[in-house]
Amino acid sequence: MATLVKKFGGSSVATPEKMHGIVDRILRERQPDDRIVLVVSAMGDHTDDLLTLAAKVNPEMPKRELDMLLATGEQVSIALMASAFCAKGQPAVSFTGAQAGIKTNDKHSKASILDVQACQVKQALDEGKIVIVAGFQGITDLGQITTLGRGGSDTSAVALAAALHADRCQIFTDVEGVYTADPRKVRNTRKLDEITFDEMLELASLGAQVLNNRSVELAKK
User: Fold this and answer.
1) pLDDT at 62
2) Could you give the dihedral angle defined by the CA atoms of residues 11, 198, 216 and 150, in that order, rounded to the nearest 10 degrees?
3) What is the pLDDT of residue 29?
4) Which of 80, 104, 176, 204 has the smallest number of Cβ neighbours within 10 A?
């Protein structure tokens, strides 16, 4: 029996067809006793669309209200993903970051995860359900919704994997892996079979977009 945390970014869940493709792949590859948690981002460019809307309403929107707005993007994704699994006969349940027990500080728009109390997630896994969690968001001790900043879903996935003592944390993206340089800009790049935490952290900190640097720091810890 393995506990697996799988994170899918916005481009991976951008359409209903892509969501059903994820469901089919997971159900095809899953072993009978696997316990699976999906962490998903908002669909496609939905976060950018919300930011554009916010700027039209108030160019200096309070960060607390901006977090309230942006957190809705992931809620759309998790509800649809859970429903896609149910449509294939697989019990599934969606949780917001708060419901998944992701506790953060109160730095709105760039909060840091302080703790993960994943009681509801563990219970759902014990019941044989696939769990879908909203990435990028959490909640403070005072019940305020927060977001983790761009790429925060990677950090959500790593934090959940640590809290659940997962066997693997897998970050799925729309490129084949980590390269020695950006293959879209540099010729003759080489895909790496493996990379150390420190090497990945250096790449991420210098602008490589394949992983969020805070997620790498947390994974190393």
Assistant:
1) 97
2) -60
3) 95
4) 176
- What is the C-alpha separation between 190 and 57, in angstroms, rounded? 45
Which residue carries 């761009």 as its tokens? 150
Compute CA 142 distance to the chain's CA centroid, rounded to the nearest angstrom.
23
Q: Cβ-count burial of 204 within 10 angstroms (0-12 exposed, 13-18 middle, 19+ buried)? A: buried
Give the Å distances, CA to CA, from 108 to 50, 60, 97, 111.
Answer: 16, 14, 14, 6
Q: Which two tokens stand for residue 11?
A: 């481009």
Low-confidence ranges of the chain (pLDDT < 50): none
The reported pLDDT for the residue numbered 161 is 97
Q: Which residue has the tokens 């947390």?
A: 218
In angstroms, the first-to-last Cα distance of the chain is 25
Strands 102-104 and 92-95: unpaired
Residue 31 sits at φ, ψ, to 5 deg, of -85, 155
